[in-house]
Amino acid sequence: MEWFDAALPILAATLRLAVPLLLAALAGLFSERSGIVDVGLEGKMLVAAFFSAAGAAVTGSVWLGLGAGILASCALGLLHALACVTLRGSQVVSGMAINILASGLTATLALFWFRMGGQTPPLPSSARFLAITLPGVEALSGIPVLGRLYAALVSGQTALVYVTLALVPLAAFVLYRTRFGLRLRAAGEHPAAVDTAGLSVAGLRYAGVMIASVLCGMAGAYIATAQGAGFLREMTAGRGYIALAAMILGGWRPGRILLTCLLFAVLDAVAIRLQGVILPGIGAFPVQAIQALPYLLTVILLAGFMGRAIPPKASGEPYVKER
Amino acid sequence: MQPQDGAAPPAIELRGIDKRFGAVHANRAVDLTVHRGTIHGIIGENGAGKSTLMAILHGFYQADAGTILVNGRAATIRDSRDAIRLGIEMVHQHFMLVERFTVLENVMLGAEGGPLLARGAARARAAQKRPGAAHGGTGAPPPPPARARAELKRLGEAYGLSVDPDARIDELPVGAQQRVEILKALYRGAEVLILDEPTGVLTPQEADDLFRVLRALRDQGRTVLLITHKLREIMAITDRVSVMRAGQMVAHRETAATSPEELGELMIGRRLAAPAPRPAPQAGPVLLQAEGLSVRDAAGVERVKQVSLSLRGGEVLGIAGVAGNGQGELLEALAGMRAPSAGRIFLRGQQVFPGRGFNAAALRRQGLAHVPEDRLKSGLLRRQSAAACAILGHQDDPSWRRFGLLSPRAIAAHAARLMQAYDVRPPDPALRSGLFSGGNQQKLILGREIERDPAVLLVGQPTRGVDIGGIDSIHQRILACRAAGKAVLVVSVELDEILALADRIVVMFDGRIMGELTLAEADERRLGLMMAGMTREEAA
């Protein structure tokens, strides 16, 4: 059972690391399916991380912190939608602007409000998302493998983990089994068809961007108030970009996005585990090699070596009525 | 002009419709009356204002002035939603279909009948038909309501519009896609159906099928508005016809009481000269030859398959075919814009492919000129002046260089001369090329290419988007090249144009040449069958 003892913490870490990726990748999914490319996932997560930590620190309530994070992310989302949908600007430029803005804004506001070198005060346990112990852990503890899996993986996660996992089938249901989903996907594929069907392309795209903003808000709050205990500068550390990669590798489909996020997370968990491990004859294990894999896989996919990545046809293009 | 029973109000009545786009007066005080249960044609040259008028009726644009009456009642049409509510639907020239959706999903879009897409009976069948990646995991299409499926079946049977509801749009041929567009309109309850140049992408046989559907619609009391620039279609299918010219409605006629000659005259405001008989071709030496040429497009799909052809000086070879059957890629390969994947090309007896330096610039130096199919994409620079476009591709010519730099004065003088000679209007070299009309842009490009005195001239879609008046002068230029002993290759989707220019005609279908006909052997029926994939012998 030695391997099991080693694998269990890695699996548990995988789940925890997958959550912010999954939230952000689903955010990108809704935005891009409506036709708006969102490279601003990173920025929205960062702002949400700061405001959720600040909110939780000031009010003492992690739920109010979550609300503040979502609101902040939505404010940036509204800016993105205004620039991309209403003003028909470049979606990539707007997304990058949001990332740069978020990076500077969070550090400045943190310094100004808390005077702790750009951090928020460390959050006490009462102002964080804590692990929930599901019923039955005791009862199952007698069963050799299942009992410990249940205790370490199924039980003992924070509320946001359960919510996020439930979001995957929900996202699939919304996209493929509802009128809204049909229209949203049509807006990302052929907006003129949506327009001539008497529907509002702008309305659908705003909806897509705002759903993405709420999900980014949750992702940021998770990073600052569940995974961490307060805000640190640049604490999202490029996860918004990895989420974009997961979305592309997942072919813009919820189920496959779940799998790619788990894959990226397990790589990350293994890399953390192997940090400082000395290999005989090589020296310290090069964890950077593992950390680079998500990007490498995405590049290989985009280069056409692993089937084809087919994005929504009209994503990235502002909709302009034309003859 | 009144309907037989004066009591029924017309389905559509437009009064004094006026619309400006900046300096362009697209519609001037246009009146139009369309009676219920008729097929009403609107004919006019490109840019006459037909499409603008229909876009106003369909809610895409709003008129600056004027009133719209639907069934005798004044109506406000602010957007497509209003038009749909009034039963006015449009089949666009470029289909409004989501390619990755199924037929059923496209038909339901905007008329889903509830917030959830209920489970349908044929889900298992749809999944079974297309297993694999596209529908793995959560990617399955929504199980559509059985009601929509039943309605689609009923409409299909009633009007002869059968389409597999579970087929994805991008798997369907163009003719079937058009049927989906019509079905979509009928599903949403269209009483008035507007079709914008519907036959442009169809073979003659597919067009006949479409006309049968339109007649069935009329016979069941629906109203059809047909926008076209083809006189033949007006004569074949409409009950009444209105003629537009330069933004104005110039005449309304009963189709039975008019003639193509009269309509043509009304369209262009003067009498059309009958085409002059062409002298027999003076076939010279073979100047361009292709052997077993295969070409792949950017996505790696083989679009031209084993094509061989040869072109002699003093003749025009026409390449006919429905758009998208490989003609474009063949032309690009011959012009050096796209390297073939197999085969050989000889230009004036020299093998140029396979060979070092196979590119457009090198071929130009060896006496080849090319007027590309898509002039806005590869023919000129829309945001640059006419002068710049007049030397495009020949900017290395020392005659407009001073001290090794381009001389704006010399270029402008050259452009002015060219525009004079080729009747480009307005003859202003400083004007941005994108601001010229399609015909004048084409004359500028044609002039640029012919002025180089090439041995071989390749022309793609010579008169796409060009007015009738302009078509004639472009055709004259091409025939003059033939008379001068040049080898001319013309690719066109317009059969009339092929018949007006070519001495020999090859028909392409699915990347292959279905056969070659001389002008004397060619007639529309035979060409149409070959365009639909029959060989020369089968179509005889």
Describe the structure.
The complex is a heterodimer of chains A (323) and B (540). With 323 residues, chain A is an all-alpha fold. Chain A is 70% helix and 1% strand. Chain A is built from 14 helices and 2 strands, in the order H-H-H-H-H-H-H-H-H-H-H-H-E-E-H-H. Chain A has a two-stranded antiparallel ribbon with strand order 1-2. In chain A, helix 1 crosses helix 12, helix 2 packs across helix 11 and helix 7 crosses helix 8. Chain A is globular, with a radius of gyration of 21 Å. Chain A starts with a helix and ends in a 21-residue tail after the last helix. The mean pLDDT of chain A is 91. Chain B has 540 residues and is of the alpha/beta class. Chain B folds into 3 domains: 143 residues, Rossmann fold, CATH 3.40.50.300; 83 residues, no CATH class; 173 residues, Rossmann fold. Chain B contains 18 helices and 22 strands. Chain B has a 6-stranded mixed β-sheet with strand order 6-7-8-3-9-10, sandwiched between helices. In chain B, strands 16-19-20-13-21-22 form a 6-stranded mixed β-sheet, with helices on both faces. In chain B, strands 2-1-4-5 form a 4-stranded antiparallel β-sheet, with helices on one face. In chain B, a hairpin with a 2-residue loop joins strand 21 and strand 22. In chain B, helix 15 packs parallel to helix 16.
Summarize the structure.
Chain A has 323 residues and is mainly alpha-helical.
CATH architecture of the largest domain in chain B: 3-Layer(aba) Sandwich
CATH topology of chain A: ABC transporter involved in vitamin B12 uptake, BtuC
- Hey, roughly how much beta strand do the residues of chain A contain? under 5%
Helix/strand order of chain A: HHHHHHHHHHHHEEHH
The major beta sheet of chain B can be summarized as: 6 strands, mixed
What is the count of distinct domains of chain B? Answer: 3
Number of helices of chain A: 14
Structural class of chain B: alpha/beta
pLDDT < 50 runs, ≥5 residues of chain A: none
Number of strands of chain A: 2
Number of helices of chain B: 18
Shape of chain B: globular
Q: How widely separated are the two ends of chain B?
A: 44 Å
Can you name the CATH architecture of chain A? Orthogonal Bundle
Mean pLDDT of chain A: 91
Q: Major sheet of chain A: order of its strands?
A: 1-2
Helix content of chain B: 25-40%
Q: Kindly provide the name of the CATH class of the largest domain in chain B.
A: Alpha Beta
Q: Please report the first level of CATH classification, the CATH class of chain A.
A: Mainly Alpha
Largest interface: A-B, 32 and 42 residues
Q: How would you describe the oligomerization state of the chains in this entry? A: heterodimer
